[in-house]
């Protein structure tokens, strides 16, 4: 997808235009919209657009998952929408939890790749020091080291920039206030207080809290600043406003932060971090199981940004964090699930999507893997979660930690777990990662990867692939984990999606096809057993010897005919052979009642099969191959 302006315009049209948007933001992979009204059709339309992976509605947001090109789409969309007006309308939208999550996403997403790049540089330095012990004593190492730490040291300034845009306050005032928090002079003052000296401001004692690498203090500073600036802008004379509003904001906000906001929010963040650490230190297996098993569930709903302050608080307090160690295992488990699908899938298209999604997973970005493969087939996502939990539990016995922050934990950041004081840490992570990669592959090879919920039966690429492989020549016998279901009627083959009945065309009953009958006989499509006969005789349920469960529903709404046009030749529980006439019906009588004779032929246990491949025919004779089920 390269025409991002067109995609943005299509999304805007699908969600109801500019007048329906009351909030616009983005994170690393998602376009996040707050809508006045949302409906199922909008979700379906946007999901079907080229370049859109999926749509998630959560936390009061209409989240369009796009991937690494979300920035281009966001820029194109904001050029079409009055963002400032929209955001003003969305100030009080949603619950407190939803607004907190939205804020974390808006603040951290724009610069997460900067932190990720710095974390990778730290990992590279760790590797070099392993092989060249004297490298740490060189000026080259010192330069690269301070470069890698700079984004974390001055993190409050990054937060000032993004938070000021989110809270709609003056960016330069926000940066000036947050720059004061990371001033070397304040660090020196805090150091003197820590050493025992008493220093006061207007008679109030100052705390020793420092704000380099901090998250909540600058975030709350900018939030409160947004209200203060609005208050002052309404009351300060226009002539002196450009000078005195910044003057008063700095004069008020910096002291307020170092006296109250900073110490209080730091205690809060540290308290949450210590709560997690208590769990991780006392029952590490439980902590590992929770994070390894459920982290990707948070990613699905886009609420994973909320954990960032806690993780950064751990690095600030202790210089290490176990959460990201377990998080890495959870991420890699989804990559392992994708690998399992690639190895198991027969569809060339499925393998192609899997390779693409797996590559992005190597960089710690799992949305393409989740929405493109694992969640699409359901089973792989579950296997990935189970494997992530298993790998994290095993790793927990080795006290795994990250010693450098990873913006996007994944395979490239495993080296962040190396530290001379914790030699077993990285080995625990490696073992956990190995389990996370291998276990889902094994589970998928044994249990399969489920039904493709994104690709409907009759998809042209699957039909083409099946045709090229000579699938239409299969007989009724199960061959190579496949079974051919023959047409039970003679007539015109119609896609299930074209059946004018929501129960059938939605796929709720299962996948299959439909036939416009040309005669009045229903034949057995395989050897099997009758498992259900409708009291009104219009529907027959049957099971093949290998387990394919088939429903044949003669006509639509024919239940109202009370069985008058139908004559049954079988009973429930009775066995039959392929070609037996199961029932006959009066086609003309059905039509005289104004009812359609189109007959859905559906595999009701669709979930037991990987694929159901429709034959590419417009007309069929009875007992000719209709579709193939693949186990």
Automatic annotation (TrEMBL):
Residues 469-478 have a biased composition (Polar residues). It is found in: Cell membrane. GO terms for molecular function: kinase activity; protein-N(PI)-phosphohistidine-sugar phosphotransferase activity; protein-phosphocysteine-trehalose phosphotransferase system transporter activity. Residues 95-463 form the PTS EIIC type-1 domain. The chain crosses the membrane at residues 111-132, 144-163, 199-224, 244-273, 285-305, 325-343, 381-404, 424-447. PANTHER family: PHOSPHOTRANSFERASE SYSTEM TRANSPORT PROTEIN, PTS SYSTEM ARBUTIN-, CELLOBIOSE-, AND SALICIN-SPECIFIC EIIBC COMPONENT-RELATED. This is PTS system, beta-glucosides-specific IIC component. It comes from Evansella caseinilytica.
């Amino acid at each position: 997808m390269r025409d991002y302006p067109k995609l943005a315009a299509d999304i805007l049209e699908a969600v109801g235009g500019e007048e329906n948007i009351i909030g616009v933001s983005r994170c690393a992979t998602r376009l996040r919209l707050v809508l006045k009204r949302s409906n199922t059709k909008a979700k379906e339309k946007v999901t079907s657009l080229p370049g859109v992976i999926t749509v998630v509605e959560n936390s009061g947001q209409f989240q369009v998952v796009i991937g690494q090109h979300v920035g281009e789409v966001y820029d194109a969309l904001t050029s079409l929408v009055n963002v400032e007006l929209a955001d003003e309308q969305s100030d009080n939208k949603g619950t407190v939890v939803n607004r907190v999550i939205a804020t974390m996403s808006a603040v951290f997403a724009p610069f997460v790749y900067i932190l990720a790049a710095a974390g990778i540089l730290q990992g590279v330095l760790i590797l070099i020091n392993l092989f060249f012990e004297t490298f740490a004593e060189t000026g080259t190492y010192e330069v690269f080291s301070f470069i890698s730490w700079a984004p974390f040291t001055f993190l409050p300034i990054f937060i000032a920039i993004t938070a000021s845009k989110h809270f709609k306050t003056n960016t330069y005032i926000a940066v000036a206030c947050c720059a004061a928090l990371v001033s070397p002079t304040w660090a020196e003052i805090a150091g003197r207080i820590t050493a025992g000296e008493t220093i006061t401001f207007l008679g109030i004692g100052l705390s020793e809290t420092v704000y380099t690498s901090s998250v909540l203090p600058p975030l709350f500073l900018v939030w409160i600043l947004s209200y203060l600036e609005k208050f002052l802008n309404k009351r300060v004379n226009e002539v002196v406003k450009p000078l005195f509003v910044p003057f008063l904001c700095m004069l008020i906000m910096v002291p307020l932060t170092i006296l109250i906001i900073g110490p209080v929010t730091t205690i809060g963040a540290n308290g949450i971090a210590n709560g997690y650490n208590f769990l991780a230190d006392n029952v590490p297996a439980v902590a590992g199981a929770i994070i390894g098993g459920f982290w990707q569930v948070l990613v699905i709903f886009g609420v994973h940004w909320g954990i960032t302050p806690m993780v950064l608080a751990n690095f600030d307090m202790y210089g290490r964090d176990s959460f990201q160690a377990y998080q890495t295992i959870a991420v890699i488990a989804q990559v392992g699930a994708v690998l399992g699908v690639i190895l198991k899938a027969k569809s060339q298209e499925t393998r192609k999507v899997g390779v693409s999604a797996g590559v992005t997973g190597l960089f710690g970005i799992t949305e393409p893997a989740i929405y493109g493969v694992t969640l699409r087939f359901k089973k792989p996502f579950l296997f990935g979660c189970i494997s992530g939990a298993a790998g994290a539990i095993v790793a927990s016995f080795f006290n795994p930690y990250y010693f450098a922050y990873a913006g996007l934990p994944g395979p490239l950041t495993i080296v962040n777990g190396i530290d001379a004081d914790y030699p077993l840490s990285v080995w625990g992570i490696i073992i956990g990662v190995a389990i996370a990669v291998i276990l889902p592959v094994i589970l998928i090879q044994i249990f399969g990867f489920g039904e493709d919920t994104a690709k409907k039966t009759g998809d042209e690429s699957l039909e083409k692939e099946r045709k090229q492989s000579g699938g239409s020549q299969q007989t009724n016998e199960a061959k190579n984990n496949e079974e051919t279901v023959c047409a039970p009627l003679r007539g015109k083959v119609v896609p299930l999606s074209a059946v004018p009945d929501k129960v059938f065309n939605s796929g709720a009953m299962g996948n299959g096809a439909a036939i416009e009958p040309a005669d009045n006989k229903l034949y057995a499509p395989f050897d099997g057993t009758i498992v259900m006969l409708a009291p009104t005789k219009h529907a027959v349920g049957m099971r093949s010897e290998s387990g394919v469960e088939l429903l044949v529903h003669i006509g639509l709404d024919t239940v109202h005919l009370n069985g008058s046009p139908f004559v049954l030749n079988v009973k429930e529980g009775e066995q039959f052979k392929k070609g037996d006439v199961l029932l006959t019906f009066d086609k003309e009588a059905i039509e005289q009642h104004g009812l359609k004779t189109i007959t859905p032929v559906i595999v009701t246990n669709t979930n037991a099969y990987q694929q159901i491949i429709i034959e590419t025919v417009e007309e069929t004779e009875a007992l000719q191959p209709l579709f193939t089920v693949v186990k």
